[in-house]
Each structure stands twice: as C-alpha cells, then as structure tokens.
Design goal:
This protein has 420 residues and is mainly alpha-helical. The chain has 18 helices and no strands. It has helices spanning 2-8, 29-49, 52-58, 63-88, 93-116, 122-143, 147-150, 156-184, 188-205, 222-235, 237-266, 271-298, 301-319, 325-353, 359-375, 377-388, 390-410, 412-415. It is globular, with a radius of gyration of 21 Å.
C-alpha cells in the first residue's frame, strides 16, 4: 500500500498517462469479457425491471403490493451486499460471479415460465425478485475486486471510465429494448433477462485470470471480517470522504431526477417530453463517462472533484428557475456530464489504497452507504414537492450540493493524495 500512496502524492493528474497497449483495457481479453458480461446483465435487467410491475398489475394485483415487490427486492440486495463482500474477500471471486449469475437466471426463468403459462403468483414473483437482487449483490461484491487483476494500475482510470460508459449506455438502451420486447409478448422481457444471466455466466466462466483474493492468514469469524471492512473504510480519511460525498450525491441526484419528473408532469408535460428529460440526462452521463479517462489524465484530481461539486450546486439552483421540459433535460444532462469524472477519480484512488484482501468489503461498504441513502430520495422528494413546491425543493438541493462542495473543498488535499 505504501507504493500506491507514493504514486498519488502529487498535485497533477491521478495517474501518469500511459498510452501503451499493455494498459489499454480493451486490449486485454479478460477485461473485454468482464465488460461485456456487465453490459449483457444490465440490458437484461433493464428490459425486465420496468415491465414486471405492469405484469403484476395486469394480473389484478393492486399498485401497493406491486410497489412492495420492487421495494423488498431492493432492500434484500442492500442487506446481502455486505455479507457477500465478506465472502468475496475469502473465496475465489470468479466462481462466485458465475454461481450468482446462474442463480439469477434460475429465478427469472421461473418467473418467465409462470407468466408464459398465465399463472402469476405474487409470492412467487416476490421470492424470485429477492433471489435475483441477492444474486446481483453477490455478483457485484465479487466483481468489485476484479479490475486490479484485469488491468495494470496505469489502466485503472480508463477501465473505470469504460465501465461507467457501459452502464450509462445500458440505462439509455435498456428501457427501449424492454419496450420493444414487451410489445411482442409480456413474457419476452423476462425470457430475455433469464437468458442474459445465462450468457453472463458463460462470459464470466471464460475469464482466465485468477481472481482469488490475497489472504494474509486464516479466516477470522464472519463478524470480525465484516467489522474489519467497516473499520478500514471509517479509519481511512479519504475513504470516509468518499462514503459521505457519494451518499450525499446519490441522494441529491435521485431527488433532482424525481423532482424534474414530478414538476414536469404537474406542468402538463407529455410522457414523451418527460422521457426526453431522462434521455438527455442519460446522454450527458454517457458523454461524461467517455470523456472521463481523458480528463482524469490531464486535470488534477482535487480540481476535478471540487469544481464538479460546485458546478452541481449551480446546476441544481438553475432547476429552480426554469419551466421548460427541455431545460430540465439540459440541466440534468449537465450534472450527469460531470459526475463520471469524479467517480473515476474516487474509485481509482480507493482501489489503489485498498489491499486486495479488503477490496470487496471496501466496495460493498461504500456501495451500501450510497445506495441505502438513494433509496429514500424519490419518496422524500415527492413529499417535499407536494408540501413546498418544486422550486423550494430545487433550491434546497442546491444548498445541500453547496454543503457537499464546501466539504470537498476542505478535503481537497486528501483527494490529491496529500496528508490531511
């Protein structure tokens, strides 16, 4: 870990630029397989997740129970992630990813069969959703320790940028693909999801790199290993900053997106116009992810984080004073454009300072903190918009963004790799 710290103690870009083919992620077979598996997984999940509630509603179940299925599934994933992180730092990560994909394929395959036969049972769908989310959390925990093995340190920023671009593209293409499949038959998106998990299993199985985590002694008890991961994140000043900043940004972005949709609807915007908001935001995220590796190699890490934090505060304030749907889309697209560079900076440094035996636990601690807060964002934004109006919520989010920007500015030395 000392060598990694030395690489980061400078005020320039996070890592020195290396244009050699050896550090180019897509010139490495196993990274390409890993990237493709994530793309297939994301497309399959997006294709089914948006339309499963429609299937339940069509089967006669009330909206409240339909929403409960989605909520319980998300919560189960959050609960399983820290547990999976412990075992992903003990067991070979490749077989964990492979087994999780097969389990998810079985769960969604059973739902496909029940829907195709016309026997939709709420309890069955609920259990399948819980299993799928738990399997996804397990896959994610194991996957969080793979980049270090698949690419050299000089390629981390580009690799993370490619993963960000992949996820942004999936968010744009996935719902459209799901809509096309749903028009064929309501069970087709579910079949596509199940088959996508099988393909993920095949691609993961084909990775030749040894992904077994390093161990420095016999396994401790589960509780001690779980606590060790939490202590490691909380004891490191930089990782504490990442946890707070990421959780805050996730919550505020979730609130802003929901605020834009609700406010646009209240002002009479058509569904296609509201869809334009999300499309522009997704396009901004995709462009930002594609540009992030180039930017990170040329701009000091601390400047990227602080400038992006203040830019998000200004953009949120702008949402309070616009009324056109396209303006919402452009502003949210601007926020989405600048977030990926920050993610690349923070994830790259976090990977460099974390020992291999703690990578999965570090990733699940940070991910659970961010996602756990983000789950509450839509309902909180909805209540506040109803009580105080869209402008007040946008200004409140701008104030919270400004608080995070102040926090990032105060911790700029940490981001630059210097002592606090």
């Amino acid at each position: 870990m000392g060598e990694a710290d030395e690489k980061l103690k400078h005020s320039g870009p996070l890592l020195p630029e290396d244009r050699s083919s050896s550090s180019a992620p897509f010139r490495r077979r196993d990274f390409t397989l890993f990237w493709t598996a994530g793309a297939v997984d994301g497309l399959g999940t997006c294709a089914s997740a948006l339309f499963l509630p429609l299937i339940l509603l069509g089967a006669g179940y009330p909206a409240g129970l339909t929403g409960l299925v989605a909520s319980v599934g998300l919560v189960s994933g959050l609960l399983v992630a820290p547990v999976a992180g412990v075992y992903a730092d003990r067991w070979p990560r490749g077989p964990m990813m492979y087994g999780a994909a097969l389990l998810a394929a079985a769960a969604m395959g059973s739902v496909f069969v029940s829907v195709a036969l016309g026997h939709v049972v709420l309890v069955h769908v609920l259990l399948a959703s819980v299993v799928e989310q738990a399997a996804g959390a397990t896959y994610g925990a194991a996957a969080s320790g793979t980049i270090r093995r698949l690419v050299p340190p000089a390629g981390y920023a580009r690799a993370i940028g490619h993963l960000q671009a992949r996820d942004q593209a999936v968010q744009i293409v996935g719902p459209m693909l799901g809509g096309v499949l749903y028009q064929l038959a309501r069970w087709v998106p579910l079949l596509a999801d199940a088959l996508s998990f099988l393909l993920v299993a095949v691609l993961t199985r084909a990775i030749r790199t040894d992904l077994t985590p390093e161990r420095d002694g016999p396994d401790a008890s589960f509780t001690r290993d779980l606590a060790e991961g939490l202590r490691f994140v909380c004891a490191d000043p930089f990782l504490r900053f990442v946890m707070v900043w990421t959780a805050g940004i996730n919550a505020l972005l979730g609130a802003l997106y929901f605020h834009a949709v609700v406010t646009s609807h209240d002002r009479g915007a058509s569904p296609s116009s509201i869809g334009l908001v999300l499309t522009l935001a997704g396009a901004g995220g995709l462009l930002g992810a594609l540009a992030a590796p180039w930017l990170v190699r040329r701009v000091p890490a601390a400047l990227i984080v602080t400038a992006a934090s203040w830019a998000m505060a200004a953009t949120a304030a702008g949402l309070a004073f616009v009324s056109r749907t396209w303006a919402y889309g452009l502003l949210l697209g601007g926020v989405s454009l600048i977030v990926p560079s920050v993610v690349v900076v923070l994830q790259t440094r976090a990977m460099l300072i974390t020992p291999d035996r703690l990578l999965a636990r570090m990733g699940t601690v940070l991910g659970t903190a961010g996602q756990g807060v983000a789950v509450l964002a839509p309902v909180t934004a909805g209540v506040l918009v109803a009580a105080y109006g869209g402008r007040a919520v946008a200004l409140g989010c701008a104030g919270a963004f400004a608080g995070l920007a102040l926090y990032a500015t105060a911790r700029a030395r940490l981001v630059a790799g210097e002592a606090p």
